[in-house]
Design brief:
Elements (H helix, E strand, L loop, with lengths): L12 E3 L8 E4 L4 E3 L5 E4 L2 H15 L8 H7 L3
Antiparallel strand pairs: 1-2, 2-3, 3-4
The structure holds zinc ion (ZN).
Length: about 80
């Protein structure tokens, strides 16, 4: 399980993507994704970082009325 990052030993988070069977594991510190076998897949893109920031800000501001499908999908990951 790629729960801990090989590079920084930080905690990884499983992120589900539409069309992907398995979730990818994100290290927020190293800004990259690995698959379930702990193989490097790709970098965390600027766009995704930005989107993530927006979501966090919304969350902090208490904007919980917006129920996006993405959030629902994320809770469905094992
Ligand atoms: Zn890392």
């Amino acid at each position: 399980m790629p729960l801990l990052c090989k590079e920084c030993n930080g905690r990884r988070f499983p992120i589900a993507f539409t069309g992907e069977r398995d979730a990818l594991w994100l290290c927020e510190k190293c800004k990259n994704f690995t698959n379930i076998k702990d193989e490097f897949i790709r970098d965390w893109t600027e766009k995704e970082i930005e989107e993530n920031k927006v979501k966090l800000d919304n969350f902090k501001n208490g904007v919980t009325t917006e129920k996006t499908p993405e959030i629902k999908r994320r809770t469905g990951v094992n």
